[in-house]
Write a structure and sequence with these properties.
There is one protein chain. About 45% of the residues lie in helices and about 20% in strands. It has 15 helices and twelve strands. Strands 5-6-1-7-8 form a five-stranded mixed β-sheet. α12 packs antiparallel against α13 (about 320-335). The longest helix is centred in the last third of the chain and has 32 residues, at about 360-390. It is elongated, with a radius of gyration of 31 Å.
């Protein structure tokens, strides 16, 4: 199997960068990226949290997701810029449109990051690093903001690489570099290692990604269930998931909601997913559609997002089937961190009355059932034939025929009575 070349492209402090570029276009005399600054809601907004921060603000200990009032206490001269989500959406679309001039094999995973399958294009460049630097530099030249590009043979390692030193950098993390570049990192820096998982791992004396990689995966499953094995695979650089580009014209039906307060338990999250699934099911039925694919999105308290999807065994618009699939996806990817937003989306839609193709597991029982019914009918017909041959055609009458004959006799008697 030919090795892949995967890029992970991530905008450096996206909201702050996009706001800074817009301000500079409009004549601002200072760059938000070069002073202690944050993008954050005012006190009337939900939580009034820090959405993005500059490197200078980070030096004050300001964290993404913390209340704005706490950030101001840490840095009294902090510059605060309100978010402009319309601007961010437009900036994201412009970036993705540009990246698609290289290849359509792009999977956008959030407003500011995507995976690019560069395998087929790699042969046109002297090295993947040179290609990544060209993309990075062209983004800055065209749009005025910077990106990090991570390069590897799979999505996981490309994602980890792009999170190395920032901003405006290109990093590689190929399998032969894992031991040197990734294993020394704190366990909390591993993709999908949430706060709760990290606490559990530290109780097992696992402090670095390398510690986790050397553990027995079965032991990890005892403590963290299937998520433990997934983390072990990630620590060892194992990930065969493909880059899944979605056509811009692809249709789907979905629903998402920002929670009034962060969901911290599975029960809270599943209650929301059930309501979202019911909504998606109703909308599918109203549109006379069934879904063959389902995806679930989670946005955490710190605005980090993740999503996962699965092919359904059979296209459906039933809310219960949608909820069961959504709950399964949720359990697979939840990192135990507080949840700010949940979303359920259906895709690969087909007409509700389209004929269904049975799976092999459904076809075989159905064929066996039909065969047994056919054999029963043959035996019954043979028995009836023998009885009628011995006692006459009227010896045995089907129940349905008996009711019909009985009704005819009644009608005959009534007719005779009135004549």
């Amino acid at each position: 199997m030919m090795s892949r070349t995967i890029f992970h492209i991530d905008v450096n402090s996206a909201f702050l960068s996009w706001s800074a570029v817009e301000q500079l276009k409009n004549g601002a005399d200072r760059d938000l990226r070069e002073i202690p600054s944050i993008i954050g809601g005012d006190q009337a907004s939900r939580h009034g949290v820090v959405l993005a921060k500059s490197l200078s603000a980070k030096k004050y200990g300001i964290r993404t997701g913390e209340p704005v009032v706490d950030a101001i206490r840490k840095c009294p001269n902090l510059s605060i810029c309100p978010p402009d989500h319309k601007l961010y959406s437009a900036s994201s679309r412009a970036l993705m449109t540009f990246l698609r001039t290289y290849t359509t094999q792009i999977e956008q995973v959030s407003v500011d990051e995507c995976y690019m399958d560069f395998t087929e294009l790699a042969k046109k460049y002297s090295s993947p690093v040179k290609a990544a630097r060209e993309i990075k530099d062209e983004v800055y030249k065209r749009f005025g903001f910077t990106v990090n590009v991570g390069i590897s043979e799979n999505k996981l390692l490309a994602k980890m690489a792009s999170d190395f030193e920032k901003p405006n950098k290109v990093h590689t993390l190929f399998p032969d570099e894992i031991k040197e570049k990734m294993w020394p990192l704190p366990i909390g820096e591993l993709f999908m290692a949430g706060r709760s998982s990290v606490e559990q791992l530290k109780k097992l004396e696992i402090y670095t990604i390398g510690d986790l990689a050397k553990m027995d995966p079965e032991l990890l499953e005892l403590h963290l269930k299937s998520h433990g094995r997934k983390l072990w695979e990630f620590a060892n650089g194992i990930d065969d998931s493909p880059v899944e580009p979605v056509r811009q014209e692809a249709k789907g039906i979905g629903n998402s909601t920002t929670l009034p307060r962060d969901a911290e338990t599975e029960e809270e999250a599943l209650e929301v997913l059930e309501a979202l699934s019911e909504s998606v099911g109703r909308r599918l039925k109203k549109a006379s559609q069934k879904a063959g694919m389902l995806s679930v999105e989670i946005k955490y308290y710190n605005f980090e997002s993740t999503s996962h999807q699965k092919q359904l065994e059979r296209a459906t618009n039933e809310s219960l089937a949608i909820y069961k699939a959504a709950a399964e996806l949720f359990r697979e990817m939840w990192t135990q961190q507080p949840i700010r937003l949940l979303g359920v989306r259906s895709s690969k839609l087909v007409e509700a009355d389209a004929p269904e193709q049975l799976t092999l597991f459904e076809v075989q029982p159905e064929m066996e059932k039909r065969k047994k019914n056919s054999e029963k009918r043959a035996k019954l017909d043979q028995a009836l034939k023998e009885i009628r041959g011995r006692y006459g055609e009227e010896a045995v009458i089907r129940g349905s025929n008996m009711e019909e004959r009985k009704q005819k006799n009644i009608d005959k008697e009534n007719f005779q009575e009135y004549t």
